[in-house]
Amino acid sequence: MGQLLQHFLLKCLLFLILSHFLTQCVSSMLRFCLDSERSALLRLKDSFILNQSASDDTLAYPKVSSWKLEGQVGGDCCSWDGVECDNNTGHVIGLDLSSSFLYGSINSNNSLFQLHHLRRLNLSDNNFNRSEIPSAIGNLTRLSRLDLSWSGFTGQIPYEVLQLSNLVILDLSRNPLELRNPSLKILSERLVNLKHLDLHKFPDFLLSQDEVELLDLRDNKIHGFIPKWIWGLSAQTLHVLDLSENFLRGFDQPIVVPQWINLRLLDLRSNMLQGPLPIPPASIYQYFVSNNLLKGEISSGICNCT
Questions:
Q1: C-beta of residue 263 within 8 angstroms of C-beta of residue 285
Q2: Per-residue model confidence as pLDDT tens digits over 167-185
Q3: Where are the domains of the chain?
Q4: pLDDT by residue (tens digit) across 127-163?
Q5: I need a labelling partner for 196 at 20 to 30 A (CA). Which of 174, 239, 255, 297 fits?
Q6: Rounded to an integer, what is the distance from CA 221 to the centroid of its chain?
Q7: Which regions of the chain are under pLDDT 70?
Q8: What is the 3-class SS of the chain, one letter each residue?
Q9: Cα–Cα distance between 50 and 69 in angstroms, integer?
Q10: Which pLDDT does position 243 carry in this prediction?
Q11: Whole-prediction pTM value?
């Protein structure tokens, strides 16, 4: 009798453990996005019109077309195209609407800025109709990646961008943006985690950054001379420097061998550089200088490159 009771109790215990496990699994599988964030996404969708001319990428398509109130519990926005949710909380943490045919103006009242848990936001290759970057971008303090390139933004880069202290990647390239007071140089100390930066012009605030790993300023219509401070930028950490496809005419100091110890790629192609061939650091693997106006003898220092 005692053994039977013990066997029965063991079965009950195993049943309770299995039931708890299954409950947790089902709960995880059925975790949908929050109603408030689903509503914010739908209002974001309605704030734009879809226009194929708004995106240049040949693979572009209207991602928001899949955003509909259909299916389970009014539609799970975590399954919508371009939307990424946290598996535990259901909060929207990623939004990739790059090359989505979005056309229209955007301001700080847009429901986008109610998605306070966003960590990654990509709006590149759309047309926001010469809008200024809304100051409400500062509400998205969890952002680590922000890509607004090729999106028709104009005007001053807002102060609030520099409130995003978790940013690791910031791409504002190929927009006619301005750097006026307050300058980004003054605010740069707030971007302590920034590793990848794309902008429209040589940004002065890089003077105070010593851990940049990749700097891409290609095809930004930058005119004039390469400032001398570029050659000492993040000497320990810089791996890639791309200044190609601009209108750079030369260097504002005599050419010296840069002090970068980890630079692997230096791209100066398709500019208007004049004079002798610049000598890259010894760490270089890829060095591009074609389509310039360079002339003179090739320095023996080039032979020391790996």
A1: no
A2: 988 888 888 887 666 565 5
A3: 33-196, 210-306
A4: 999 999 999 999 999 999 999 999 999 988 888 888 8
A5: 255
A6: 20
A7: 1-31, 70-74, 179-190, 199-201, 204-205, 254-256, 300-301, 303-306
A8: CHHHHHHHHHHHHHHHHHHHHHHHHHHHHCCCCCHHHHHHHHHHHHCCEECHHHCCCCCCCCHHHHCCCCCHHHCCHHHCCCEEECCCCCCEEEEECCCCCEECCCCCCCHHHHCCCCCEEECCCCECCCCECCHHHHHCCCCCEEECCCCCCEEECCHHHHHCCCCCEEECCCCCEECCCCCHHHHHHHCCCCCEEECCCCCHHHHHCCCCCEEECCCCCCEEEECHHHHHCCCCCCCEEECCCCEEEEECCCCCCCCCCCCCEEECCCCCCEECCCCCCCCCCEEECCCCEECCCCCHHHHHCC
A9: 19
A10: 93
A11: 0.68
CA distances from residue 296 to 105, 227, 271, 272, 286 in whole angstroms, order as listed: 51, 22, 17, 15, 21
Q: Tokens standing for 43?
A: 């209002």
Query: 33-196 has which fold?
Result: 3.80.10
Terminal CA-CA length for the chain? 82
* Model pLDDT, residue 273: 93
Q: Which residue has the tokens 């980004």?
A: 184
The CA distances from residue 122 to 2, 146, 201, in Å, are 66, 6, 21
